[in-house]
Amino acid sequence: MRAAVVRETGDAHALKLETDFPTPELKPGQVIVKNKYAGINFIDTYHRKGLYARDLPFVGGQEGGGEVAAVSDEAAAEGIKVGDRVAYSVFGSYAEYTAVPSAKLLPIPDEVELDVATSCVVQGLTAHYLVTSAHADLIKEGEWCLIHGVGGGTCQWAAQMAKIRGYKVIGTCSKGKEEGCKDLGCDELIALDETPGTAYEDYESMDIVERVMEVTDGKGCKAVIDGIGKSTVDISINSLAHRGIFVSFGNASGAVPAFPVLRLIGKSAYVTRPKLLDYTTNREELVWRADEIFGWLKEGKLNVSVDTCFPLEQAAEGHMYLEAGKSKGKVLYEI
Q1: What's the pLDDT at 199?
Q2: Tell me, what's the pLDDT at 201?
Q3: Is 250 left (phi over 0), alpha (psi -120 to 50) or beta?
Q4: I need a surface site. Which of 58, 78, 211, 258 has the fewest CB within 10 A?
Q5: In terms of DSSP bridges, do strands 3-6 and 15-18 run parallel, antiparallel, or are they unpaired?
Q6: CA-to-CA distance for 160 and 149, rounded, in angstroms?
């Protein structure tokens, strides 16, 4: 089968199309999905670079959508059948076929297009746990939340979901993406200069902490959702309210450097470094999050933008596009 494979970690060109990669075998409790789309996410670039270690070689990706092509007896007993439209998150989605445990499948409602449903799995579920669970209920309805990088990807979802949850939202974005961000519903949008060739803005182009304190009447934000990392850690911590929480979930500008926990004492602040797997620990939790997201989509409360679809033959170009910060929505491979 065709698959985009990493045999040695490195830059985007380490991700190479192979046309004779072995098709996965169907095992008990699994289905084989014939992929139509695969999502491109920043975590995929971390695996490709070796920042998050994987056994080599590996098929890239961990987000896909398509139709069920083969069903194990166990999956059939659960009512899954060939032809069902499904989305999922398991390793190996940059390929024509992926073996998926039936417990990881998300049935796609008829009202939701396949490309949009595929976009939901990693970024949508990540945004959902960030605004519903990762903050440990330290933010309440009507309180302020700062979300970095709302111009695309996960935080474009998170800003909309935070508003659905009743939080007041301050979003940061680049000036080049400002117009598109106006539809997200942020109460305050801080537009920053662009950092050419990167996936993040110039967070030194204005005093964000000062603006946050102006907007919040000097109180700060009860939660800060930060997928930027190294460039924003100081801003995020300094923007917190008393007993607020810094939710650091990504490394777009590099990993957050170590800092002394004593630094949090000024506001008795909290910090967490969560990951999606710990917020989809069982089938019940996974389906609850997905059903809520699909429900918001059907009700028109969420606006999901699919920015670009690359053919799988342009595997490296897809990663370079994402890492260069060009996307204003979800980036996919069409397979």
Answers
A1: 66
A2: 87
A3: beta
A4: 258
A5: antiparallel
A6: 13
| 81 close to 71: Cβ distance less than 8 angstroms | yes
- How confident is the model at residue 195, as a pLDDT? 82
Environment class of 277 (CB within 10 Å of its CB; exposed 0-12, middle 13-18, buried 19+): exposed
Cα–Cα distance for residue pair 215/95, rounded to 1 Å: 47
pLDDT in tens, 97-133: 999 999 999 999 999 999 999 998 999 999 999 999 9
Q: b or e along 134-162 (b: 16 or more beta carbons within 10 Å of the residue's beta carbon)?
A: bbeebbeeebbbbbbbbbbbbbbbbbbbb
Enumerate residues 6+ apart whose C-beta is below 8 A from 85: 65, 66, 67, 107, 108, 114, 117
Element (H, E) at 202: none
Question: Following DSSP, what letter does each residue of 174-194 receive, concatenated?
Answer: EGGGHHHHGGG--SEEEEE-B
Residue whose pair of structure tokens reads 């964000």 in the numeric block: 208
Burial classification of residue 182, based on how many CB atoms lie within 10 Å of its CB (0-12 exposed, 13-18 middle, 19 or more buried): exposed
- Quick one: three-class SS letters along 229-261? CCCCHHHHHHCEEEEEEEEECCCCCCCCCCCCH
3-class DSSP state of 219? coil
- CA 31-36-41 angle, 5° bins: 95
Distance between CA atoms of residues 286 and 282, nearest Å = 6
At 56 the three-state DSSP class reads coil
Task: Give CA–CA dist 181/219, Å, rounded.
Answer: 25
Residues of the chain with pLDDT under 70: 199
φ, ψ of residue 98 to 5 degrees: the values are -135, 135
Q: What's the one-letter identity of residue 131?
A: V
The DSSP symbol for 275 reads -
